Write a sequence for this structure.
């Protein structure tokens, strides 16, 4: 008796798929090291380290989301629930990453303008409360696609990033631009803050503009091309904000160090 197979064929692996897998692995590995180091070291409890741990966790989730997207696209038959899962996880992680990064910028501003009082126990409690609100808000925003705000039943309403609707992605990109503008007003006169924000804007501005201008009929190649520098942001964040920090770098050599100087 001859049995017939009804399994659908998976799409062939492309260079974009390979890049997705490699970048997701690097992002997840880098940020896992940062988060583990900060959480395992009692001396790293200043507000800036809480913010860096949050930033690392957000970028770690972004790397995991990229790996899941690769698996669902090229290794396992994709489905509606897998698209909603990966898109929701990406939105959550990127929202938390943006807010955490803005928190790092605010921390550097306060540490320079209020050097004598900033860094107390009250500041740490405020930072922890802020991060709790950030992650609650990020989870609520990221749950949008799974709660019904998607274009799976209405393909014409899709954005350049299916299954997100054009309205949903436009609100995300518009919110990103608004937060950057507000933070730039705070960073006036501080060259380091300007550098931090310039790197972030350079990574995310192409995709943000493309998300506002494109729609479901736009060429997918442009979406991938603008996502490359966006993924680069999660690769650069650990290097720019954590691994260059003297206290984090010397943890393995001096585990009992309690200094909190920043580069």
């Amino acid at each position: 008796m001859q049995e017939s197979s009804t399994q659908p064929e998976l799409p062939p692996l492309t260079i974009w798929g390979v890049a997705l897998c490699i970048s997701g692995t690097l992002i997840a590995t880098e940020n896992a090291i940062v988060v583990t180091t900060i959480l395992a070291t009692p001396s790293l409890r200043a507000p800036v380290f809480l913010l860096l741990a949050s930033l690392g966790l957000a970028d770690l989730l972004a790397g995991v989301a990229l790996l899941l997207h690769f698996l669902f696209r090229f290794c396992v038959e994709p489905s509606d629930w897998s698209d909603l899962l990966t898109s929701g996880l990406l939105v959550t992680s990127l929202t938390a990453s943006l807010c955490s990064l803005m928190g790092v910028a605010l921390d550097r501003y306060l540490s320079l303008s209020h050097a004598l009082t900033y860094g107390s126990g009250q500041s740490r409690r405020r930072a922890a409360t802020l991060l709790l609100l950030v992650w609650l808000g990020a989870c609520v925003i990221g749950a949008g696609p799974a709660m019904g705000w998607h274009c799976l039943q209405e393909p014409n309403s899709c954005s350049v990033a299916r299954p997100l609707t054009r309205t949903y992605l436009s609100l995300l990109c518009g919110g990103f631009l608004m937060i950057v503008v507000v933070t730039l007003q705070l960073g006036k006169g501080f060259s380091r803050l300007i550098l931090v924000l310039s790197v972030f804007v350079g990574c995310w501005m192409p995709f943000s503009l493309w998300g506002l201008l494109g729609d479901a009929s736009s060429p997918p190649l442009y979406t991938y091309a603008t996502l490359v520098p966006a993924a680069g942001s999660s690769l650069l964040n650990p290097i720019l904000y954590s691994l260059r920090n003297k206290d984090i770098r010397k943890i393995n050599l001096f585990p009992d160090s309690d200094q909190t100087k920043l580069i």
